[in-house]
C-alpha cells in the first residue's frame, strides 16, 4: 500500500479546486472513523492498518474528478491508473475506489463494509458541509446531528445530494442513519481547520 504522502501528492497534482480537495479530506476523515467503528475490539496493529487503508481510499477516491467530470464513465479509472503507476498493488483499495462510481462505469458494485462505507459517506460529507454553510458562523462546530437530520427531508436543500445513497448505511452497513451522521460529523469536526469550516 502506498503511504498517505504519496496519495496526497497524487491528489494535489491532479486536483486544483480547493473545495474538491476539502471534500476528499472530509471523506478520508470519515472513512478512518468508520474503520475504527468496525474495528472495535480488533488487535491494534490490524485496526491501525485498516484505518490507514480506509483513509487512503477516502483521500484519493475522487482524485481524477476534475479531469473526468465531463466523462463520468471514466471517473475512478484514471485515478486507478495513477495509483498503479505510483506502485499501489492493494486490490482492496483499487476495488473500493472503483466501486463508488459503479453506476457510471459498470464495474465493482459495492460488496463489503469498506466499499459501502465509501459509497454512503461520499454524499453525506457534502450534505454536512451544506448544513454548516447555512449556520450563522458557517462553522462545523455549530452543526449538530439534529440540525443535519432536520434538513435531510427538505428536498430543496442541497438538492443535488443523493439521500437514498446515504440512507443505504442502514441496510448495507447496519448503522442507523442518526449514528452514521454522528460518526461522520464528529470526524469532520476533528479536521474543521483543514476543511475551512
Automatic annotation (TrEMBL):
Keywords: Hydrolase. It comes from the Bacteria. InterPro entries: HD_domain. One of its GO terms (molecular function) is hydrolase activity. Residues 22-113 form the HD domain. This is Phosphohydrolase. It comes from Candidatus Shapirobacteria bacterium CG10_big_fil_rev_8_21_14_0_10_40_9.
Amino acid at each position: 500500500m502506498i503511504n498517505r504522502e504519496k496519495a496526497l501528492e497524487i491528489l494535489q497534482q491532479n486536483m486544483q479546486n480547493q473545495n474538491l480537495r476539502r471534500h476528499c479530506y472530509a471523506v478520508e476523515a470519515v472513512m478512518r472513523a468508520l474503520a475504527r467503528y468496525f474495528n472495535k475490539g480488533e488487535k491494534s496493529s490490524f485496526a491501525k492498518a485498516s484505518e490507514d487503508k480506509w483513509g487512503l481510499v477516502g483521500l484519493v477516491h475522487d482524485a481524477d474528478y476534475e479531469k473526468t467530470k465531463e466523462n463520468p464513465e471514466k471517473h475512478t479509472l484514471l485515478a486507478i491508473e495513477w495509483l498503479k503507476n505510483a506502485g499501489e498493488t492493494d486490490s482492496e483499495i483499487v476495488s473500493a475506489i472503483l466501486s463508488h462510481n459503479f453506476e457510471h462505469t459498470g464495474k465493482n458494485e459495492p460488496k463489503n463494509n469498506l466499499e459501502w462505507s465509501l459509497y454512503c459517506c461520499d454524499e453525506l460529507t457534502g450534505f454536512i458541509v451544506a448544513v454548516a454553510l447555512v449556520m450563522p458562523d458557517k462553522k462545523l462546530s455549530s452543526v449538530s446531528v439534529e440540525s443535519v437530520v432536520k434538513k435531510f427531508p427538505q428536498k430543496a436543500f442541497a438538492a443535488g445530494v443523493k439521500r437514498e445513497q446515504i440512507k443505504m448505511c442502514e441496510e448495507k452497513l447496519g448503522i442507523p442513519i442518526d449514528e452514521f451522521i454522528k460518526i461522520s460529523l464528529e470526524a469532520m469536526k476533528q479536521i474543521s481547520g483543514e476543511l475551512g469550516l
